[in-house]
Amino acid sequence: MSKKIVILGAGYAGISVAKELEKYYARNQDIEIKLIEKNSYHTLLTELHEVAGGRVLPNAVQVDLNRIFKSNIVDVIQDEIVSIDFDSQKLFSNNHEYTYDYLVLSTGSRPCCFNLPGVNEYAYQLWSHKEAIILRNHIYNCFQKASTITDREERKKLLTFVIAGGGFTGVELAGELGEWKNKLCKQFSINVEEVNIYLVEALPNILNILDKNLAKKCEARLKKIGINVLTECGIKSVDKDSIYLSNEEKIEGTLIWTAGIQGNPFIGEMDIKCDRRFRVEVNDYMQSIQYKNVFCAGDTISHICDGKPLPQVVETALQTGSCVAKNIINIINGKEIRPFNPNYHGVLVSVGFSYAVAKVMGVKCSGIVASALKHMVNIHYLYLIGKLSLVMDYIKHQFLQKRYCTELNVSLPVEAEGIKELGF
Ligand SMILES: Cc1cc2nc3c(=O)[nH]c(=O)nc-3n(C[C@H](O)[C@H](O)[C@H](O)COP(=O)(O)OP(=O)(O)OC[C@H]3O[C@@H](n4cnc5c(N)ncnc54)[C@H](O)[C@@H]3O)c2cc1C
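That is the input. Now the predicted structure with flavin-adenine dinucleotide docked in place:
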């Protein structure tokens, strides 16, 4: 009897599941595979900071799903799921319902504001394509507006940016902003000394998942391009104009929040056992501990593996995705399923266009070599999901097109997806 597999969310994890199933079921008519994604494209989330920092055009991080799934083995559906009934095995959007025999939840994560006063209302975030464009437009508008204002205090406020969180996202964004500010200052005839960019981290060091030496190198690079790195300093609260720090200082400017991560709150509203951060509790096979026909992949997962929680990174998404696909195939074939066995290769963090630090398969490097390695990793991923045409697009966006935006060629409706446009 025909089996229906539904994958919810076409991020790194969902694509990994769907690609593995597509390969296996190339000639099997008895399996129906649906990939449901609210956008028509896959977002290269790890490159969002390049859009927010004006380095690449917004479409550089969007991959049309029809370019990834060209055959009709995987049915790509653009729809947003608003509820799931795990007992009747149905998903519901506003206009449709979908039934499944096996469901994969791969809806990713969202920033977590820890209920700090004002953060949800007044901070910019960087966790979706739209948020990246909104942030980019805001930064550009701040420089443009500052160039028309003579009041010193007002100018200072417009040219001050506080990035909260010294993890991947915060560091990579700070790197982009540190480089873009020079171009914006030139474009709008602003003295670069007037711009203040802070990277604020509550712990004693930035990039705590990285080797200490590499983290120090990153910090030195950030300082070199004009970023004020404040460690052992938290954000206490924020209001419309001011950011209040744990060292009792007050900074007037824009707050960009990258300090915490949680599962997708949508999953938290469903009747499935989650941890307190909306991540689904799974067993070693990446199955929900409650429903054996519901699997999870990527940032959606809450699981302790080798004594540590699974990190919310791309390698987890790709590897859990592959594990889930294989386990579904095994169940359908009446075979034993296998536990998830992670095999992490390393970490790569960029600071602007030509500098990165990396520890890959035990080898450490920094500077342009690590930056080249990061491009190679991106190219490898794009080749796997979409062959040469996606690689060519990447090369065009990264190396051939004019770098750094000098006009706002993409604007969004302010109310897009409930994301607010803040600003002065
Ligand atoms: C700026 C930034 C930089 C990062 N840098 C790195 C890095 O350098 N290295 C690294 O390893 N990791 C990095 N990460 C983390 C990495 O991007 C995530 O771990 C990874 O994206 C997780 O993949 P995923 O498939 O679980 O989720 P996602 O990639 O977020 O995909 C989830 C998908 O589900 C869709 N979706 C959600 N809800 C619904 C719904 N109700 N209906 C339909 N579709 C839905 C979303 O639209 C999305 O496409 C970074 C993250 C950010 C934001």
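Residues 119-259+348-418 form a domain with the FAD/NAD(P)-binding domain fold (CATH 3.50.50.100).
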